[in-house]
Write a structure and sequence with these properties.
This protein is 63% helix and 0% strand. With 443 residues, the protein is an all-alpha fold. The chain folds into two domains: 8-32 and 140-436, no CATH class; 42-138, no CATH class. Helix 12 runs parallel beside helix 15 and helix 13 packs antiparallel against helix 19 (362-389). The radius of gyration is 22 Å and the shape is globular. The N and C termini lie far apart (44 Å). Residues 1-5 have low confidence and may be disordered.
Length: 443
Amino acid sequence: MKVLVDNRWFVLVVIPIILALISSAFVVNAAQRHTQVSPVDEYVYIDYTAKIPEQGVVILGDETGDLAREYISCQGVAGYGEFNPDACRTGDFSEDEEYPYAGKTAADIYTPLYFAVAWAFAAPLEALIGVDFLDGARLSGILWLSSSVVLLYFALLRLRVQLVVSAAVPLMIVGSLAAWWSTTFLSTDATALFAGSLLFYVLVWYLQKGQGIWLVTLAGILSTLLKFQNFMAVALVASVILVAAGFERASSEALGLRHLTWKQSIRGASLVLIAPVVAQLAWMLIRSALASGSGAEQGVADPLSIPALLGETTKFIGGMVWGASTAASVPVFAAVVGVVMTWLLVGGAVASSLSGGKGVTFESSLGYFWIAIATVAAPLLGVATYFMAGFYFSLPARYGISLLPIGLAIAAITLGRNAIWRTVLVAFALYAVGVSFFPVLTQ
C-alpha cells in the first residue's frame, strides 16, 4: 500500500486502532444510556438472537418467545410505551394479542448471520460477568461500526487520499444519526454500514490488482445475505466495474488502478451482480421450505402505485444520514450534523460525476452511479419487497445507509484535494464525533 508518510507503523496500525477505539467508545457510551427497546424492530431482533442457540433460525410463522415479550412489557418501546405491562408483574407473557404482530415474529425474512454475531457477544458477557442479555447483544454494534470505519480508512489510503482526510472522513460515520440508530441498538441496519465500507474497499482492491473478482463477489454475497437492502451497494460496485475498462489511463494511474479489458469488466460486473441475487433467491427458497405458518400482519401495507414509487426517488439521498430521526426530532446541534452531511454527500457526488469531463474515470463513475442508484434504488426496492414479502410499504430512508460510507468516500476523494475543503472535512468530522458522545437522543 502506497502512503505518503514515513511512519508506516503509525499509519497502518496505530491510526486504525484509534479509529476502532473511538467507534467502540461511541457504541458503549450510547448503548448504556438506552432505557427502552428501539421502535425499529428491536423487539423481534431480540427474539431472533435469543433463539440462535436452540433453533439457529427463526422461521415464517414463528411466535415470539417470552424473553422478547418481557423486554417490551417491562421496559417498553420508545415512543410507544409498555406492551402488556401487567405481564411484567405476573411473569405471564402468553397473551399473543397483547404484543406486536399478534405475537408473531416479523424477522423471519432475515438469515441468521447478523443474529448469530449478536448472540456471540451477548451470551459470554451474560454468562461470565452478568451483563444483561440485550445490553450484551447491542454491543455487537462495536464490530459492525469499527469494521466500517477502519475499512473505509484503508480504502481511502489505497486511493492516496491525504492521511488527515483518510482518518477524519470515516469518523463521520460515527457521528451520523444513522450510526446511533443502527449500531447502539440491536438492528440489522448495522450491517449496512459494514457492507458499504467492505464493498468499497474490495472494489478499490480489485481495480488496483486487476484480478481477484471472487473477493468482490463473496463480499457482495455476504452483504446481501446479511440484509437484502445492502444489495444497492453491490449494484453500485458492479456498475463501476462494468465501465472500468473505459477509464482514462492517466486518471487511473494516478490512483494506482490497473487497466481492465472489456471482457474483464463485463464478466466481473455480471458475476458481482448475479451471484448475490442467486444467494438471496436460495435463502428465499429455504425460508419458504421451513415455514410453519403464515407471516406476521404488520399493518404497514400501502397501495403499490406509480405515484408512490416516484415519491421514493428522493428518500435515500435526503434521508440516509438521519437513521430513524428527522431534523425536527433532534436538538439543533445534532440536526446540523444531518444537514451538513447530506450536503457533503450530494455535493461530493455531483462534483465527482462532473470531474471526468468528456471521459470516464473511476471518480466520475462513482459519483454518477451513486446518484443514480440512490435515486432509483428505493422504488426498485419497493417492488422487490412487494414480491419478497407479499406487500408494499413506504420505505424508511434508513434502508439506504449502505450507500453512506461510499458517499463519504466520494466526498473525501473529490473535495479532499482542495486545502479549504480538507479543513472543512476534518473540522466537520471532529464536530460530528464530538456531538455523537452527547446524549442527543436519550430516551
